[in-house]
Amino acid sequence: MRIVVLAGGIGGARFLRGLKDALDNREAPTTTGTEITVIGNTGDDITLFGLRVCPDLDTVMYTLGGGINEEQGWGRADETFSVRTELAAYGMQPQWFGLGDRDMATHIVRAQMMAAGYPLSAITEALCDRWQPGVRLLPMSDDRVETHVLVNEGEGQRAIHFQEWWVRHRAAIDAESIVSVGAADAKPAPGVLEAIDTADFVVLPPSNPVVSVGSILGVPGIREAVAATTVVGVSPIIGGAPVRGMADACLKAIGVRTSAEAVAAHYGADLLDGWLVDEADAHTRVPGIEVRALPLYMSTPETTEAIAAAALDLAGELSGVDTGRSTR
Fold it and tell me: How far apart are CA 58 and CA 225, in angstroms?
C-alpha cells in the first residue's frame, strides 16, 4: 500500500506512530512494503536567532525517531536550556519561544544547509537520515510560507507571526483573520504531488484543520490532488472542544463552529470521503461523507493504534484497497 498523511505537529505525529503500530499488527503480506509519505506543515516555521525553526516537521521526526519529549509532545527528551539562559542574559528577543540545547543543534544544521543553498526538502531528508522515522517526510513546499494572524489590541490592527499568537499569547487575543503569507505563490515540494497521485488513499489525522492541514491544502495544486483520491479524516474536535491546543480560536477566526460536523463540512464532501468522530459526536451527519464513531482520545499507545486501525479500515472500505485484518 501507499499511504499519504497530511500532518501538523503533536496530534499528527502521535497518530502516525499509532498508524505504524497498526500496520505492524496487520496480516502479512497485505501490509508488507507499505509506504507512508508524510506531507508536513511548514506554515508554523519561524526564524529565531538566525535559525530556521520547523516545529511540525521536527515534531514528526522526533516522535517517530524516538527523540521526543513525551510529556509535552514537542521538543527533545532530556533537554537542557543553557543557550536559552545565556541569550536571555544578553537581552536577546524573543524570550517567549524557548529553544533547547539539543533541539538547537537541529536548527543549526538546517541553517547551515540553507546557507549552502539546499532546499528544505533535501535538508529534511538529511535530518531524517539520523532519526530514521520509518516514513518519508516531505515539507509541503520548499518555498517560504508563514502563517500570520491579524489582531486588534485596541491600538489598531497589526499582523503577528502565528507562533507569537499561539505560544506567547496562547491565542487569547481574538484573531480577526489568519493569513498564509507566501502560499499563493508557493509550489508543492518535489515528490509531494507524485506521492498523492500514486497513493491508495490519503489520511488527515487530528491536526489543526486551519493552520496545519489547512495550510498544506492551501499550497496550490495540493488540495486538487488530494481530492482526486480517497480521503479519510480523523476529527480534532470532540464534544465541541479541541482534543488539545486552541483549534477553536482558529476556527472562530474563519467563521467555522467548533464541532466535528462543522469541521467536516469545512473540508467539504469534494475532499473528504470518510470522517471518524468520537462517540460523543455519534449524531454527526454530513451529506456525501461516510461518518463513523469510536473513542477518539489518543490517551495511550493502544488507543492511538485503535484509532489509526479504524482509519485504515474505513479507507480500505471506501477505496476498495485490502488494508489487511488486525491481528490484535
Answer: 25
Q: Does position 322 have pLDDT exceeding 80, yes or no? A: yes
Q: What angle do CA 12, 24, 41 make, to 5 degrees?
A: 20
The Cα 215–Cα 266 span in angstroms is 14
DSSP β-ladder status, 175-181 and 146-152? antiparallel
pLDDT tens readout for residues 222-272: 999 999 999 999 999 999 999 888 899 999 999 999 999 999 999 999 999
- Band of the pLDDT at 310, cuts 50, 70, 90? very high
* 0.85 surpassed by pTM: yes
Q: Bridge partners of 326?
A: 26
pLDDT band, residue 16 (cuts 50/70/90) = very high
3-class secondary structure per residue, the chain:
CEEEEEECCHHHHHHHHHHHHHHHCECCCCCCCCEEEEEECCCCCEEECCEEECHHHHHHHHHHHCCECCCCCCCECCCCCHHHHHHHHCCCCCCCCCCCHHHHHHHHHHHHHHHCCCCHHHHHHHHHHHHCCCCEEEECECCCCEEEEEEECCCCEEEEEHHHHHHHCCCCCCEEEEEEECHHHCCECCCHHHHHHCCCEEEECCCCCCCCHHHHHCCCCHHHHHHCCCEEEECCEECCEECCCCHHHHHHHCCCCCCHHHHHHHHCCCCCCEEEECHHHCCCCECCEEEEECCCCCCCHHHHHHHHHHHHHHHHHHHCCCCCCECC
Torsional sign, CA 182, 5, 14, 131? negative
* Cα-Cα-Cα-Cα dihedral sign, residues 97, 102, 106, 112: positive
Q: At what angle do helices 55-65 and 120-131 cross, to 10 degrees?
A: 20
